[in-house]
Amino acid sequence: MNPELTISKLAKRLDLSAHTIRYYERIGLFDPVGRGGNGHRVYAEKDVLWAEFLLRLKATGMPIHQMLRYAELRRSGDSTLAERRELLEQHRRDVQAQISQLSQSLEVLDNKIQIYHQLEQKEHHHDP
Amino acid sequence: MNPELTISKLAKRLDLSAHTIRYYERIGLFDPVGRGGNGHRVYAEKDVLWAEFLLRLKATGMPIHQMLRYAELRRSGDSTLAERRELLEQHRRDVQAQISQLSQSLEVLDNKIQIYHQLEQKEHHHDP
DNA sequence: CATTGACTTAGAGCGCGCTCAAACCTTTAC
DNA sequence: GTAAAGGTTTGAGCGCGCTCTAAGTCAATG
Q1: How do residues A46-95 score in pLDDT, each as one tens digit?
Q2: What is the pLDDT of residues A21-50, one digit of tens each?
Q3: Nearest CA of chain A to the CA of B113: how many Å?
Q4: What is the mean pLDDT of residues B42-60?
Q5: B60, B95 in Cβ contact below 8 A?
Q6: To which H or E segment does residue A106 belong?
Q7: Domain-by-domain residue ranges, chain B?
Q8: Who has greater pLDDT, B47 or B125?
Q9: Which CATH number does A1-61 carry?
């Protein structure tokens, strides 16, 4: 019923290793998390949501030092709302640019692949 | 009139350092290139085109070992046409997947940014 | 004829983002 | 009571993709 997770459960859910989760906590990306009586980390749903958002940033190419900046602003409370928004807006522009660039490259790839198809046709006619 | 380039001209044109160009040649990505009487590298237009295509692959996230595989296939001649095409087709699918993933993330970012705008509105009403 | 500047090589060093090793502690199962 | 399964810490190591250093060659310039 309660949604608390061990580190290995979280690892499975986020699809990364427990090592990496501890590493992210060490460098200040994930907040220090609750501990059970045995000293083991206990993750609540809010931790999962925060982690998932960070991983979304990572997946879109944000470098760790910038995620770290965002995490620090968040820890500083509501006075940093505008700054956090601006950071995300800048990142939004970066992601847009990535998409444009990839779309262009997709066209280049398609052209190249077409050329290969043509070359392969010619190859097949070599010996009469 | 003739379009031959020194390494520093090529570096400017490709927007990378001469160091990096030599590095790419060393690891087998760029073909060993012509040399002037003084032993300096001399780049012809075909070298530029090949480099630009490789950089396109790099820009779309292809790791160096795979670019290297492609480069080796190319050096092996026409018998590798199909294999090269398949490599590019696989990469095309990867790029498509990247675009989809980024587009999704863009929506998530937009939601988050909207939420920040709302929170900032509320913040501004705090003191009456 | 010495200096400047652009090139050459081999190889060392570096920043990023993990990834793993070692030593140790708990809880559960037999 | 002991072994296995899972967690803890600190700190070292690693793969990638460059990036830079050192020492040297060569060509043109003052």
Answers
A1: 999 999 999 999 999 999 999 999 999 999 999 999 999 999 999 999 99
A2: 999 999 999 999 999 989 999 999 999 999
A3: 6
A4: 97
A5: yes
A6: helix A81-123
A7: 1-60, 76-128
A8: B47
A9: 1.10.1660.10
| Subset of residues 41-100 in chain A with CB less than 7 angstroms from any atom in strand C | 58, 63-65
Domain B1-60 part of CATH 1.10.1660.10? yes
Chain D bases closer than 7 angstroms to a protein Cβ: 6-10, 16-21, 26-27
What would the two tokens of residue B31 be? Answer: 């073909």
Q: Do A78 and B123 touch (CB under 8 A)?
A: yes
**Residue A128 pLDDT:** 56
Q: How far apart are CA A105 and CA B105, in angstroms?
A: 20
